[in-house]
Amino acid sequence: MILNNLIKIAILDLLKNTHLPVSLYQIITHLRSLNLVDERQGNLALFRLNFLVMNALFQLQQELITEQLYLRISSLAIRLEPLHKTDQTALSIIDNDESLRQYYLDWNNLTNTTEQDVEALLSRFWKRFLSADKRVDALLVLELPVGADWSTIQQSYRRLAAQHHPDKGGCPQRFIEIREAYEILQKSDKSCSTNR
């Protein structure tokens, strides 16, 4: 694919001319400034643009190993690093990214993905994001750290519920907040255990 070759050349040029890591956003901005990608909006267009860039990055990662260079790929920090023959760390990182690499190197994932597929992906992402956000808020209500286990959550709930129960002179609104936080964490704990 000629466009992909032009994108790879432009990305490699950008990476070789900077000593700092670059983000995926910076790469896309650079490609747009060179008129190598279009400015179309919409979720499907952004998915396709992201796919093209990630495809080019994973191709470059494979190709640059022969030049003793390792391309570290993360959405916030993409950079070229020297690869020493004895450096197995980078090669093991490449192995760990295998499913992601295979996804972006398979052109069928670009051509077969529809607007509805992208919307479903975004919907699942936001559900997980909002669920995690609600969990953190609920832990704060129960005066707990983010990593609290279920036993600690139950203990804190019992203590705070007893302290703020309206029958014992506590604030009804605070008691309701505590109860709702506990229920959120209970649901979150059940969904996490079923996804394990």
List keywords for this structure.
196 residues, mainly alpha, Helix Hairpins, 2 domains, two-stranded antiparallel sheet, 9 helices, elongated, Hsp70_co-chaperone_J-domain, protein-folding chaperone binding, DnaJ_domain
Name the average pLDDT.
85
Q: Largest beta sheet: what is the strand line-up?
A: 1-2
Q: What is the count of β-strands? A: 2
- Described by the principal axes of the CA atoms, the overall outline is elongated
Tell me the number of structural domains: 2
- What is Rg? 24 Å
Q: Tell me the series of helices and strands, N- to C-terminal.
A: HHHEEHHHHHH
Number of helix segments?
9
**Alpha-beta classification:** mainly alpha
Low-confidence residue ranges: none
Question: What percent of residues adopt helix (DSSP H or I)?
Answer: 55-70%
| Amino- and carboxy-terminal Cα gap | 40 Å
Beta-strand residue percentage:
under 5%
The main sheet comes to: 2 strands, antiparallel
Keywords: Chaperone
Organism: Spartinivicinus marinus
InterPro entries: DnaJ-related_N (IPR021059), DnaJ_domain (IPR001623), Hsp70_co-chaperone_J-domain (IPR051948), J_dom_sf (IPR036869)
Domain J: 137-196
Description:
A hairpin with a 6-residue loop joins β1 and β2. The chain has a two-stranded antiparallel ribbon. The relative contact order is 0.08. Helices cover 68% and strands 4% of the residues. The protein is mostly helical. It has nine helices and two strands, in the order αααββαααααα. It has helices at residues 2-16, 24-33, 43-64, 88-96, 98-105, 108-111, 115-141, 150-164, 172-195, and strands at 69-72, 79-82. α1 crosses α3, α7 packs across α9 (172-195) and α8 packs antiparallel against α9 (172-195). It folds into two domains: 2-113, no CATH class; 117-195, Helix Hairpins, CATH 1.10.287. The longest helix is centred in the middle third of the chain and has 27 residues, at 115-141.
